[in-house]
Design brief:
755 residues; alpha/beta; TIM Barrel; 2 domains; eight-stranded parallel sheet; six-stranded parallel sheet
Length: 755
């Protein structure tokens, strides 16, 4: 076939999380700026080398924190609190925008940009803040320098730039629609493109993922206005990329734009391919993203080759559906995986090989035979279909998703039984995972510490954390989750039908990386997972301790999921496993149980036509998971870092007794969103942004609670951080929790005085 080949991005963090380690060393003052820059350059070079054989190497896909932040800095969209607009772009400003603090001993802490989910992925982006009269201008040459860097290393670069409509649509602006700024922004985009052409780029991919979720008039007219003015004077060719979804009825209008090529996500836009086959112009490049950039399953290259061949009359390019940053780096680092399961998989490096095989003039018969054998073994594996599990899911009826009394009556009963004060205080679950805890876990895995010694170390950390929470005056305690590496991976290790990797790291945000489990078969809970440690924690204190679980939709969303079974059925299998754990926790004496669902919003399909069925399935799975307990047992859930407006009705329909949610960076905007959906639950809007190392003051937290009290009555409000405290240090954790308890007490005093 010999088609042109490319990818839309590559994992940034490094095979061994070198970027994470370098960032954290820089933030702690152990590495200087030149050292960080050197490691970043080494990673970029290595990743371009791993793309060798492709027609282009992706550039500008690398970031020290986030691509939306990079673009805001490139165009000078820097809020005043981070320094004067004409100040030079430095790492100090960059990381203060990202996390509130640059590094130990740096400039004073400041409130960072908001952090939220990137479409329906588990990656988080920073939300640019714009003004109605925003002055855009080129203030950072990152994209240009990285393109020159690739050329100097002998690679043919294809810079990837987030498009102007996506950038504006995902930004926030007081007093108007950010898309109204398109006329101000596009000339500066054109300057950037001209600079990239001068640096030596032949093609630039302008990525507009917003079109996968929004094709309203504001977006489409903004896109047309942008492309009317976007083309630079230099002989540069532009590839419009649409990852994550289809264009549908907007296809003819989008294809009327003045681009040189169109890149479509063929894994999600299969319904668009017939129109493109019949109508797409012959004088333009058509790039098919046939290798799934978000799946870890091995591709059936023979089937994809036949699909590509049907477009042989077009100027055809072949690529990945989206950036490969959403999958782990390389499969050959997974020496401990079951060899049969391993043969079913493909990570970023292997996907490059699949792409090259797909584009080759002649298919490789040996590779084809290996792929057919792997696919056959996957279909035949006995764990893929378990009759008892399928029958249990089939037997679920409406009653399985219903608790006894209505929510309002349950809450009244729980207030009588639990006897909590106004503005009860709690945390979301995890406490700092120190270097000592990580060393303890590593020694146990290496066999240097037996299980008894390992559990003794975990118990000591739990006892200390319970005492600390008692001393601080928290009302509902947690055991700290020291036995858990990750809130989803932990359960993936416990459930059959799911496996975990050793090195399958994927970036979530900044230096935060996760290892998504792989759901490959029907799901079985062979034994209790958290009951022993939760009961042990409750025995240490007379205060209430929460049982801590991850919900079925979040496990689903934060895993790589099998593709041979509808996701709604996989969610119900997970729900039945969690339901058994919930009822066992109740039987062990836990009167408060939290089942976290931060993944609910990110699972919302980008295509509006698919959203209602998803939300119905998600709500049902959660309710099945928690409906087996008595009315006086209080069920909590938690959600964070997402736009809640689109799912407010579904959040209300969960009928959790208490919901905690991220709200501090948005200054309670999230609370307004969920209450608009008619929520009847008690609510804990976060008053401490745990994704920043700064310690919020009592006054700051109290002001947020006062905003919350303007929306909901005091008896329905809880006080908690935005999220778990795993990534925070003990010093800042203690100080922040002291302030949180003081803020709650101040609100109690104020409320009683007002009666």
């Amino acid at each position: 076939m010999n088609a042109t080949t490319h990818v839309s991005g590559y994992p940034r963090i490094g095979e061994k999380r070198e970027l994470k380690q370098a960032l954290e060393a820089f933030w702690s003052g152990k590495l200087d700026a030149s050292g960080l820059d050197g490691i970043a350059k080494e990673l970029r070079l290595r990743h371009w080398q791993e793309q060798a054989g492709l027609s282009f190497a992706a550039t500008n896909d690398f970031s020290l924190y986030d691509g939306m932040l990079d673009l805001a800095c490139t165009f000078g969209a820097i809020p005043e609190r981070f320094g004067p607009a004409d100040s030079p772009m430095t790492l100090e400003r960059y990381f203060r925008m990202a996390r509130g603090r640059s590094r130990q001993g740096g400039a004073p802490d400041v409130v960072p940009l908001e952090l939220t989910k990137w479409f329906d992925t588990n990656y988080h982006y920073l939300v640019p803040e714009l003004q109605p009269e925003q002055d855009f201008r080129l203030t950072w040459d990152k994209a240009v320098q990285e393109t020159k860097e690739a050329i100097a290393a002998g690679f043919r670069p294809k810079p990837v730039v987030i498009g102007p409509v996506t950038f504006l649509a995902l930004s926030k602006m007081d007093g108007g629609d950010p898309l109204s700024l398109i006329g101000r922004l596009v000339p500066v985009y054109r300057e950037l493109l001209e600079a990239l052409a001068e640096a030596g780029a032949e093609w630039v991919e302008i990525s507009e993922p917003i079109l996968a979720s929004r094709r309203d008039e504001a977006v489409l007219s903004g896109l047309e206005a942008a492309w009317d003015e976007l083309r630079p004077a230099a002989p540069l060719k532009l590839l419009l990329g649409i990852p994550f979804g289809r264009l549908g009825d907007a296809l003819p209008r989008v294809c009327a734009l003045g681009f040189d090529g169109l890149h479509v996500d063929a894994t999600r836009a299969a319904a668009d391919l017939p129109w493109l086959h019949a109508n797409y112009l012959q004088d333009r490049v058509l790039s098919l993203g046939l290798i799934d950039g978000r799946s870890i399953w091995r591709s059936d290259v023979e089937v994809l080759r036949a699909l590509a061949a049907s477009f042989r009359e077009k100027q055809l390019w072949l690529g990945t559906s989206c950036s490969l940053q959403h999958v782990p780096h390389r499969l050959d680092a997974e020496s401990t995986l079951d060899p049969v399961l391993r043969s079913w998989l493909s990570f970023a490096k292997e996907k490059i090989g699949e792409l090259l095989s797909l584009a080759a003039a002649q298919p490789d018969p040996d590779a084809g035979a290996a792929t057919r054998a792997a696919l056959a073994s996957r279909r035949a594996h006995p764990g893929v279909k378990i009759r008892e599990i399928r029958e249990a899911v089939a037997r679920l009826d409406q009653s399985a998703a219903n608790r006894g009394r209505p929510l309002e009556e349950r809450l009244k009963l729980q207030r009588q039984v639990l006897k909590l004060p106004l503005f009860p205080t709690t945390t979301i679950g995890s406490f700092p995972q120190t270097a000592e805890i990580r060393r303890l876990r590593a020694r146990h895995r290496k066999g240097e510490l037996d299980t008894a010694g390992y559990e003794a170390g975990l118990d000591a950390a739990m006892r200390e954390t319970i005492r600390l929470q008692e001393d601080l005056g928290l009302d509902v305690l947690v055991h700290g989750e020291f036995e858990r590496t990750d809130m989803v991976e932990f359960f993936g290790e416990m459930l059959e039908g799911i496996t975990v990797t050793s090195n399958g790291w994927v970036q979530s945000y900044g230096s935060r990386c996760v290892k998504p489990p792989i759901i490959w078969g029907d799901i079985v809970r062979p034994t209790p997972m958290t009951v022993g440690v939760s009961a042990k924690a409750q025995a240490l204190t007379s205060k209430l301790v929460k049982g801590m679980l991850t919900g079925p939709i979040t496990i689903l969303q934060w895993s790589f999921v099998r593709v041979d079974l509808p996701r709604a059925l996989v969610a119900l299998q997970l729900a039945l496993a969690i339901r058994k754990e919930v009822t066992d926790l109740e039987a062990a004496g836990l009167r408060v149980i939290q089942v976290d669902e931060p993944g609910l919003r990110e699972g919302l399909p980008l295509d509006p036509a698919e959203r209602e069925s998803y939300l119905e399935a998600a709500v049902r799975a959660f309710r099945v998971a928690v409906a087996g307990v008595r009315d006086e047992t209080q069920i909590h859930t938690h959600m964070c870092y997402a736009e809640f407006d689109d799912v407010a009705g579904a959040i209300a329909a969960l009928e959790a007794d208490v919901i905690s949610l991220e709200a501090s960076r948005s200054r309670m905007e999230a609370l307004h969103a969920v209450t608009a959906g008619g929520i009847g639950s008690d609510v804990g809007p976060g008053v401490w942004d745990i994704h920043s190392p700064r310690v919020p003051s009592v006054e700051e937290m109290t002001a947020l609670l006062e905003r919350a009290a303007d929306v909901l009555p005091a008896e329905r409000l809880w006080v908690n951080p935005d999220c778990g405290l795993k990534t925070r240090g003990w010093e800042e954790t203690k100080a922040s929790l002291e302030n949180l308890v003081a803020a709650a007490k101040a609100m109690r005093t104020k409320t009683v005085a007002a009666v």
